[in-house]
Structure formats: C-alpha cells, structure tokens
Design a protein that fits this description.
Length: 202
Amino acid sequence: CALPIFYSQNKGMIEKEYIENLKEKFREFEDKKDKIIELGVKLNRTSKSIIYSVIRGDIKSANEYMVEMNKYKEEIDKIVREEPRLYNNAQISYQEYVEAKIFYNFMLNNRIPKNDELKVDEYSYVMGLMDFVGELYRKSIEEMLKNDVEFALRAREIIYEIYKNMLYMEFKNYDIRRKVDYVGDIYNLLTDKIFIRKVARE
C-alpha cells in the first residue's frame, strides 16, 4: 500500500551530517570505555604488585610500582572527568587503588589515609578500605608463622576499629553491607587464629 502523504513529502528529515556526528560521538564514547578498561587492568595488576612487594619487604619495587599506579589513576581520572558516564567502569580500579594505598601507608607509615587525600569518592574508599582488611589478615598469618603474634594482635585491633565504624555507618547498599560482613568474618577468623597460636605456644 502507498505510504501516507506525510512520509512521502518529508524525505531526509534527519540529515546525514547529524547521523555522522552521532556515530562519531558513540565511537568516542566506546574508545574511552575501552581505554578505561585497558588502564584498569594495568592499575589492578600494579596495585597487587605494590602489596606483594611490601609484604616481601621490597620497598624499592613498591615505590616504583606506586609511581606507575599513580600514573594510571591520573589517566583514568581524566577520562572520567571528560565522560562521567564511565565512572562505573572505573570503580573497581579505584577500589584497588585505595586498597594498595592504604596497605602501603599502614605498613610503612603506620597511618590510614582518608578519601580526600587519595582523591577518590566515598564508595570506592570504603570498599577499598574493607578490601585492605583481607590483605592485613594475610600479612598477620604470615607474621604469626614467624612467631610474631604482636603484629597479629595489632592488626586485629585495626580490623575491629574498621568493622565497628562500618557498622556505625548503617549502610543500605547491599554490596557494602556484604563487605562489612566480610570484615566481621575476617575479625573472627583472625581472633581464632591468634587464640590457637597462643595455646600452641603455652
């Protein structure tokens, strides 16, 4: 059947130039998304290298990896500023960044930096802070194998402080609440490990 007169008399209502412009915008968005994913993989790998280097006592390597990780973070920040819709694609990397920064500063400087110092949002910060607990637990187990129970006792105090403060926040977000439960489990697990170690030494 014949098309209505309205359609037949209005060919080319969307100009080709406009469509080309739309196509270019989508292409730019996808290119930036791909770049964030690429940088995220590099940052995540480097953050783990920082933690493992600190655990091994190889501070020189940890410092070198830190410079590298900071560079990746700055590049990701720049893309997110240009295209805020890509924040969710950067979130895991921000958490990894926070985890490595906190572990590094705790082990070397006996301090836990805040989110404004690390230039990350609050969500990425609390998630990274609670991920740090897992690394602190692993380090505590390693130290107890060397008969250093004091480190584990101190770590347990820090873990409890984090757990208590996270509970106080009364988060409604499911992912954060699940992570808070994880911190509580780590605290209980470390408490049991310390008790077993003390009994074995008596």
